[in-house]
């Protein structure tokens, strides 16, 4: 797999940051660099991705079962449609099941006459409820079937909205974009092991570059940092990268599970639904720069299906410190932000995440050994 020129050799240059003093926020150089990458992606993503076909050609995927969260809209909807049209068994894990069923009907009508009916089903999942995540995982695992690809796509960016908390007590960006997908990934490990070689694809964002995670203040309530939706969103995306780094490192090669984060690019979807109307109008006026949902789905589809991904992930495992694969919007391996390499914080994020989602610290190790675990949020449901 070819590496992007901007990232070549960076892994070797980086030093583990374990010796740093406790960091309170992103350094201004890192912050500036993050914004530079963001502006660069916005302006040049189409040029950088000009080698990619649209839609991305996919091989026959009849042997794959894929769960895609948030597949009623935007990137997730496109990803689900294309995987299903290539023959995969697609599970739309969504909170609005009626919208998903309506969508399937539309796809089946459009597909009619082109082959066997699409193999798609709907399961309810609300990431704002950790109990819903446990319920979903338990129902899926009870089938005792394989899962080949989990795409943690659902996400929110409530631009300009006041700070909100889920009923579990967590800041909503952190819960929907990081905590709930992390819980889902861990709880579905038994099915992913059955489906091995399998993959966890986390739809992340270039915005993680301007994020900072304070594990003592995941809800951003201490007053050390002023909450804005940008802080909430970027921190949640960075937390996801850091958690993925450790998960990737903890999964032994024999488990056959690849963990990949992807950046879809800057994409015209409903993610901007909370923007003021005038900004939304401006957003639509710059279509040249912004990807369509179909273009934005390419990095997810690539991470879910490219045959070289498992080998690339294995190669990264040989690194001394944890780094999971990160695939750019132009479908090339790249590096996440410098802060994502802060090993000490990565392990703190790992521990804090497991604590917040109500899992034991050795959850992954126990699941790998075939043991049952319980999650605080599904206590009444007994075993996972
Ligand atoms: N668009 C971009 O420029 C961009 C850039 C970088 C990264 N991303 C990431 O790409 C992913 C997909 O976003 P998108 O742009 O396609 O946005 P979108 O059109 O708003 O789609 C988001 C999906 O997530 C679902 N969702 C939201 N909250 C949920 C919850 N509590 N439980 C279950 N599902 C929930 C939504 O379902 P409902 O329809 O029911 O709300 C929707 O299906 C996100 O992770 C986003 O952060 C997007």
From TrEMBL:
It comes from the Eukaryota. GO terms for molecular function: oxidoreductase activity. Keywords: Oxidoreductase. Belongs to the short-chain dehydrogenases/reductases (SDR) family. This is Protochlorophyllide reductase. It comes from Lactuca saligna (Willowleaf lettuce).
